[in-house]
Amino acid sequence: SVELEGYSSYLHPIxxxxxxxxxxxxxxxxxxxxxxxxxxxxxxxNLADPTEIAHVSLGAGWSNAESDxxxxxxxxxxxxxxxxxNGKAYxxxxxxxxxxxxxxxxxxxxxxxxxxxxxxxxxxxxxxxGVQANDLSTLAMLGWAPFPVQQTLPPGPxxxxxxxxxxxxxxxxx
Length: 174
Hints:
Helix content is 0%, strand content 48%. The chain is mainly β.
């Protein structure tokens, strides 16, 4: 068993006998309520003696990755971990030697980020406001595409659709 400050509600194997956890941080002080989201790195190479080898508090809030695995991104080629929290996407590099290193926090002009993926050399993040591409190496913004704004109808009865014109058929056809 492992003694922890908090809990991991999502566990993801990342190879080399390591397991990455996303959950809530509960400090060992007299506080019994979670203080916010956390990432934990566990060495499980010896299943009889698993150990937490790195831990980082993400701050107050709750990450969708705690209950939705699609909100979590681990990119093994670079050790990139991306976790959404409070509308932003936090990018970390994770390794056995250095634990967690914050690379940056991404935000969209509008919307709350809840998904991320890698396409070639870009980190793509998706929010309810649109899609953004950032350079995978530097996290520099490459582009932003907002989703179309849904048009709302004015109050009152729904207007009848405009009838289609009667087709004009060649002579002799009906």
